[in-house]
Specification:
It contains seven helices and three strands, in the order H-H-E-E-H-H-H-H-E-H. The chain is α+β, with helices and mostly antiparallel strands. A three-stranded antiparallel sheet has the order 2-1-3. A hairpin with a 2-residue loop joins strand 1 and strand 2. Helix 2 crosses helix 7 and helix 4 crosses helix 6. The model has no long low-confidence stretch (mean pLDDT 91).
Amino acid sequence: MHPRFLAITSSLDDKLNELLASKPLAFGQLPTTMPRAGVYLFTENERHLYIGRSNRLRDRYFLHCRPGSRQNQASFAYKLAREGLGIKGGSYVAGPQTRTGLAATSSFVEAFTAAKIRIQQMAYRHVEETDQTRQALLEAYCAIALETPYNDFDTH
């Protein structure tokens, strides 16, 4: 393994353990002094569901569950809504199965709203990571280690 990659990845497990050991927070409990950049985790009933990363952790949290967030801002809620409606896979060809097409249907709007409310009820944890390379690798490492079902690394 390349020495630089090894040096960057050697602390990923420690960061994962720090994330898991952090106090789970609920909607309305985010401290104003939380770190700006890092990796975050949503957990429901002790099951880790989604890991993400951001350079604006506090803002990113609210985008996932704010009532006014759109489909392109609340990616986790979008995935939950699609799953709830039995819609498999994404569509990148113009039409009714795209984000815009789905957003025009009342059934999707209802499912998307419910998903954002569901996310508000989930436990939220975060860990600081300001280095962009380590942040990206930590997100992938945590998603793999925790087997978070709503993370994928598909490309469009």
